[in-house]
Design brief:
alpha+beta; Double Stranded RNA Binding Domain; 3 helices
Amino acid sequence: MLVTPLAGAADESIAVGEVTPPPAGSGIDASLLRDVAVAEIRQIDASRLRDRRKVVVSFALTGAVAEKTIACTVNAMVRDARTGAMIGIIEAGAHADGPASAELRKQVARAAVRSAVRRIPRVLGVK
């Protein structure tokens, strides 16, 4: 399992784990999802989290691209880093209307990952 520790991020209490490759033909690669997740997790203020244990968050993207609508759903599983016990599952999504360009697909995927990461504090409890 590849885990990306985030030096200085959220007091290193949150790490990005597995990132499942997106569906073939989506025009999105796992490295884009990982980069967005890492950047967004760095923005989490760990001092406000009630649950201070170290966690690993794994991501999977499912997407539906149509002629005029691009929709992506991201599932994020939050696990205890020591035991591997599942703490919670987050489902978040984003969509946009317009021509299904490669850039728009990437923007929608980024927005879906951001939305999922921003829900992590609720799963861990906020003071």
